[in-house]
Design goal:
Layout lengths: L1 E4 L6 E4 L4 H12 L4 E7 L3 H12 L3 E5 L6 E6 L10 E4 L4 H11 L6 E4 L10 H8 L4 E4 L3 E5 L6 E5 L5 H9 L7 E6 L5 H13 L5 E4 L2 E4 L10 E2 L4 H14 L2 E4 L11 H8 L3 E5 L2 E5 L7 E3 L7 H9 L3 E6 L11 H11 L3 E4 L4 E5 L8 E3 L4 H11 L6 E4 L11 H7 L4 E4 L2
Parallel strand pairs: 2-15, 3-14, 6-7, 10-11, 18-19, 22-23
Antiparallel strand pairs: 1-23, 1-24, 3-5, 4-5, 7-9, 8-9, 11-13, 12-13, 15-17, 16-17, 19-21, 20-21
Helix pairs in contact: 1-2, 1-6, 3-5, 5-6, 7-8, 7-9, 7-11, 9-10, 9-11
Length: 428
């Protein structure tokens, strides 16, 4: 799909979709509970559908109630403990969270499991699990565009680097409480993306699972626990709010509703960042109003909020002076190489930008002519970031591969048009 996004001054209100991070966690916890949970305010992106289907393959009964244009309601009758009487095949789509959360959980089921992957997911490293599992005789091997798991998981002490994806830590946190023995996770500093681990712990607590900090980098997980059913509404997503917060900072008053202003989400930093760079941000009971201001460059640490990288590059491109985005190396192993690919597209649009392995440097403040065709690189966050940039260009931007938004935010272009931005969608 090609999206032509026209320049325009946004105005109006958007209800932010539910947090993809929290929805993954809620679906998994509900499916592991011994009883019925009801989850509301679930935005059914492709990634969340992959997690739902995967937990169904493990035996959870999940009824999805959908109304067009509204978040879904999920009725989940959980399994209590994973088990299977035959080998399993699970389609994780392009969802890194689904794959990395599932590997330890499915290791509990006692059967070989094949995880099928799409896009770049099969290329994204699983070395952490491979090295941890070697000690227990479990094998996780790359196999024909996916991963093959043979063997189980044991209680005990696990040591993990803290400067790689927190998804490995969260995956173990889902599975280890269900084993008979106690476990400890020793996280080697620097501990990046700590906020995502805190999100996992908060969701586990809602479903009755305990884990305790022994010190700032050590988690103790008692064994023999049981997930308990819980009814909850999934909170709004700051990762998606970020695109509209930047949109408001660049061009018009945008009201954003549907988030918890006290959220533990690491991407909630977007509010402090746009405010620090000069935008006006007014807090509301359930969100924010973002308005333009005199924007200036900044140095931004992405260690705990890497998903903000693409849209913050757009903000920096429109702010006076120099900006740097550092501790960004993990962006190279996302749905695309987000450092190289964002740089390629922004330079195509006239942005002065260069990068290193771990950082991006942008000289902003220029006017951008637009009128060029860009690639979304099969990456939802690049597509949405380019759409935001298009609103301040002199002429429209054409974005190829715009269907990538379905991975996390299928209604993105609808919400953009609701704010008065003209978008024309065409089949490639």
């Amino acid at each position: 799909m090609r999206a032509t996004v026209f320049p325009g001054r946004p105005a109006g209100e958007v209800r932010v979709p539910s947090s993809k991070s929290m929805a993954h966690r809620a679906v998994i916890c509900a499916a592991l509970s011994a009883g019925r949970s009801v989850l509301t305010n679930v935005s059914l992106s492709n990634d969340i559908r992959a997690t739902v289907a995967g937990m169904q393959s493990l035996g959870a009964a999940i009824t999805v109630e959908e109304t067009v244009g509204q978040p879904a309601r999920l009725i989940v009758d959980g399994i209590g403990r994973p088990c299977a009487d035959a080998p399993l095949t699970v389609d994780c789509g392009e969802s890194g969270s689904t794959l990395r959360f599932f590997i330890p959980i499915f290791a509990l089921c006692g059967q070989p499991v094949r995880f099928e992957c799409s896009g770049r997911l099969a290329e994204r490293p699983q070395t952490v699990y491979q090295q941890l599992f070697e000690k227990t005789g479990t094998e996780l091997t790359a196999a024909d565009g996916g991963w093959q798991l043979d063997g189980g998981i044991c209680a005990g002490d696990y040591e993990l680097r803290g400067d790689i994806s927190s998804q490995f830590i969260s995956g173990l946190l889902f599975a280890l409480p269900l084993l008979a023995g106690d476990s400890c996770l020793h996280i080697l500093p620097p501990f990046e993306s700590r906020s995502y681990v805190l999100l996992t712990l908060a969701m586990l607590a809602k479903f009755g699972i305990r884990a305790e900090w022994r010190d700032e980098n050590t988690l103790f997980i008692p064994g023999g626990q049981q997930y308990r059913p819980c009814d909850l509404a999934v909170e709004g997503d700051f990762s998606q709010l970020a695109f509209f917060a930047v949109l408001g900072a660049l061009g018009g008053e945008v009201t954003l509703r549907g988030v918890d202003t006290g959220s533990l989400q690491g991407d909630s930093r977007i509010i402090d960042i746009v405010r620090a760079m000069g935008a006006e941000v007014q807090p509301l009971a359930d969100g924010y109003i973002c308005r333009p201001g005199e924007l200036c460059g900044a140095d931004i640490d992405l260690a705990d909020c890497p998903d903000l990288g693409p849209v913050l590059c757009v903000l920096a491109a429109c702010a006076a002076g120099e900006s740097s985005l550092y501790n960004a190396g993990r962006l190279r192993i996302k749905e695309s190489d987000r450092i190289a690919d964002v740089e390629e597209e922004l330079v195509r649009c006239g942005v002065r930008m260069h990068s290193t392995e771990d950082a991006m440097y942008i000289t902003g403040g220029s006017a951008y002519a637009g009128g060029v065709e860009c690639s979304g690189h099969n990456d939802h966050r690049i597509v949405m970031a380019l759409a935001v940039l298009a609103t301040v260009c002199g002429q429209p931007l054409v974005i190829r591969g715009a269907q990538a938004i379905n991975k996390s935010y299928p209604r993105f272009f609808d919400d953009l048009q609701q704010l008065g931005i003209k978008v024309v969608l065409e089949n490639d």
